[in-house]
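=== RUN LOG ===
request id: a7f3
mode: sequence -> structure
chains: 1
length: 212
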Amino acid sequence: MDRHQRARDDEGSAARLLALSDGVFAIAMTLLALDITLPAGLDPAGFERALGDVMPNLFAYAISFLVIAAFWRGHHQMFRFTREVDGTVIRFGLLSLGLVALMPFPTTLLAEYGDRPQSVAAYSGAVAAVGAAQLALAVVLWKRPWLSSEALPDSVARNDVADLASTVVVFAIAVPLAFVSPTSAKLWWVVLIPLKAATGKRGKRLRAAGQG
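=== RESULT ===
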């Protein structure tokens, strides 16, 4: 009887979802690097050309690695005090992970065809979609305090929602902007830096105040 009870409890624990999440994020990050290769046996001139050709791949890899790492960090922060999950949390969690697993594809588009509006729009849309899924997950966890060992203060939850919403809005705006100018759309992503800095500082301050 106790064995069956433990099994049922384990099925509803957040630890299993987090373990799956870590695996998906790790695989997605690893797949980003697969396109960064140089042919063997190049002469000096061919090596220099090939090295120049691979630079867009390195740029796309760096951007996507930072994006996925930020989503991974936010995902763990959301589940910091979560002890159990229900069907709704699992569905939104799996949706988020499914979109993260797709990130290597738009990253390849950005690396190989970064000057084309369709590629920049697809990449921007993919990041916005991951952000929207994590935003929905954050709201679901916020509205289910009984799943956590410690209730998240509303001020902290609202700041976390604003942080994710800023990602969604910036990359969603970049989708139509890419069809006007792919370069402008990529430069528009930089707007996230001060936005993230502001919400990050505010989040630390709110959490410190809550612990105090």
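=== NOTES ===
The CA atoms of residues 92 and 135 lie 10 Å apart.
The chain has nine helices and no strands.
=== END ===
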